[in-house]
Specification:
34% of the residues lie in helices and 21% in strands. By secondary structure, it is of the alpha/beta class. The protein has two domains: 3-69; 77-340, Rossmann fold (3-Layer(aba) Sandwich). The radius of gyration is 21 Å and the shape is globular.
């Protein structure tokens, strides 16, 4: 037995519950040898899947190979622990980022789209799941709204792609973008689980989830079904929005989802004609809340007519905007990476 023969054997071993091998899914971190003893180090988040796999490998190599698990370390500042026992419906994603807010219309979808594109611009493989089943805005914001669902030979849904990221949304399943969905929340939840399991995402460095507004069933289910690496919370600076954001922060803390940080959107307005700054929704609210709950402040984005225009046109400002507009989102992506890498 040598490292190569072990590798060949491992190529035939599938991840528990999936038809993809642990080598394809990059679960095997290292195969090493010391004094004629071999060990395999697995990088896995899911406890149950690890236990099954470790047993399978022990049997496969008749107990002659030592199987170990790489500790997944997290920075202390955001480590509130994980949900009691999260399932992992997305083992193909190395990290899951959930973008939420307590309140609607504060810019979750815009932040999700531009954060995803910013991560892709850095060379990461990124998938964006639009979990807002009742108001799926992502397809329009990234110009895939006219695409229809396609399946590959393995009966998996092929995600849409644009600006370097893969995208899946309920909006791609309806005949037109204004078709209303009248689903009970249990149906909505199962649709999202199907998007996690039956979409051919490939391997992802990041799965970014654009959450619906509020703190309801969908948020809870996502936290239970996925090991969320970091929640990103979006708010606007005014006090009413901040009350709602407090609820979202408390919910994440309760269900033990680590918080990657807070984004303050529509922070201020610079009049294009006079360059005068107006703090339309007040000043400093986001930073105050971040301090109060001891969560990182990831950055500000001003209220900017062009950001709205770019988003409506399906051309994300982080890709098509000017240096300043690109900078807001790149800065947020950099600050988030500092928290989670
Ligand atoms: N910084 C900004 N400047 C100008 N317009 C913005 C900015 N951020 C978002 N918008 C616009 O505000 C509107 C709401 O943004 P978005 O859809 O991202 O919010 P949301 O929180 O996802 O809303 P919902 O709760 O409905 O899902 C959109 O038209 C968007 O283009
Ligand atoms: Mg939205």
């Amino acid at each position: 037995m040598n490292k190569e023969t072990i590798l060949e054997e491992l190529k035939k071993v599938n991840y528990p519950g999936l038809d993809k091998s642990i080598i394809d899914l990059k679960v095997v971190e290292e195969i090493s040898e010391e004094d004629g003893k071999f060990s395999i180090i697995l990088s896995m988040q899911n406890d149950e899947a690890y236990r099954i796999l470790a047993e399978r490998l022990y049997d496969l190599f008749h107990g002659n190979v030592d199987v170990q698990r790489k500790a997944i370390t997290q920075k202390k500042s955001i480590n509130y622990g994980h949900t009691a026992n999260p399932n992992n419906r997305a083992p193909y994603a190395k990290r899951v980022i959930a973008v939420t807010s307590g309140k609607g219309g504060v810019g979750k979808s815009t932040v999700s789209v531009n954060l995803s594109v910013a991560l892709a611009q850095k060379g990461f493989k990124v998938g964006l799941l639009d979990a807002d089943v009742y108001g799926p805005n992502v397809p329009r914001m990234i110009q895939v709204a006219d695409e229809k669902l396609r399946w590959n030979d393995n009966d998996k849904i092929i995600p849409s792609e644009n600006f370097g990221i893969k995208i899946m949304s309920v909006g791609l399943t309806t005949p037109s973008s204004d078709t209303p969905l009248v689903w009970r929340s249990s149906v909505a939840v199962s649709a999202l689980i199907q998007f996690l399991e039956d979409v051919d995402w490939g391997e992802l460095d990041f799965l970014v989830i654009d959450m619906p507004p509020g703190t309801g069933d969908i948020q809870l289910t996502m936290a239970q079904e996925l090991p969320i690496t970091a929640g990103v919370i979006v708010t606007t600076p005014q006090p009413v929005a901040l009350d709602d954001v407090s609820r979202a922060i408390m919910m994440f803390k309760d269900i033990k989802v680590p918080i990657g940080g807070l984004v303050e959107n529509m922070s201020f307005f610079i009049a294009p004609d006079t360059q005068k700054r107006y703090d339309i929704f007040g000043k400093g609210g986001g930073e105050t809340i971040a301090k109060r709950y001891e969560i990182p402040f990831l950055g500000q984005i001003p209220l900017d007519m062009q950001i709205r225009e770019y988003s409506d046109a399906g051309t994300p400002p982080v890709a098509m905007g000017d240096q300043l507009q690109k900078g807001y989102y790149k800065n947020i992506a950099d600050n988030l990476l500092k928290q989670i890498l």
